[in-house]
């Protein structure tokens, strides 16, 4: 993850001021210059509000104006959720992801008080894992079945797991495969997950790091709960 721009800049840099002389450039000047390189997006203030409330992405000031710290926090968020390009612009994709993550109520899954439950909110296209009634992994983004291949709502059990599964119908490898219904399962996405017009053929696509984490947690017999319905399906 990216470190905050301008954080811990105690040293001075030197820049020509006049012939034969050099003037110190303070951390504030460096920070201001760094901020100027980050564009202010349409959803700047909304995203600042979300990131400040969520925490964990760095210092953010809710004022609708881009700063070096704001930019670093947005970049960190974008990298976490695989948003490209990760350049700190508060654009529609970044805001959409932030809204969906913020709206994900982990209690809505109705997970049991014992054991592990993999939760998938089909409406919001998000997922998280509960263990013994508590959140084990925070909500993240997913992509489920597109129109004609809708991922159904229901309660299932993981019944097959392989680190790399070959899909005969679609001729593609599916990393971190965990099947829970028919030919449907969790696996690492094979395309850019934020292309909304795309979708799976019923599987739950995950970002690479999330797919690996889910695989590390998973085991045969664990519960998978899908609920809601993907818009447009």
From TrEMBL:
GO terms assigned for molecular function: peptidoglycan L,D-transpeptidase activity; transferase activity
Arranged from A to Z, the UniProt key words for this protein are:
Cell shape, Cell wall biogenesis/degradation, Peptidoglycan synthesis, Signal, Transferase
Any one cellular component term from GO for this entry? extracellular region
Q: In which pathway does it act?
A: Cell wall biogenesis; peptidoglycan biosynthesis
Q: Which residues form the active site?
A: 187, 203
Presence of keyword Cell wall biogenesis/degradation? yes
- Domain L,D-TPase catalytic per the UniProt entry, residue ranges: 116-227
Which InterPro entries does this UniProt record tie to the protein? LD-transpeptidase (IPR050979), LD_TPept_cat_dom (IPR005490), Peptidoglycan-bd-like (IPR002477), PGBD-like_sf (IPR036365), PGBDSf (IPR036366), Transpep_catalytic_dom (IPR038063)
- A biological process term (GO) from this entry: cell wall organization
Which residues does UniProt assign to the signal peptide? Answer: 1-21
Q: What PANTHER family does this protein's entry cite?
A: EXPORTED PROTEIN, L,D-TRANSPEPTIDASE
Q: What is this protein called?
A: L,D-TPase catalytic domain-containing protein
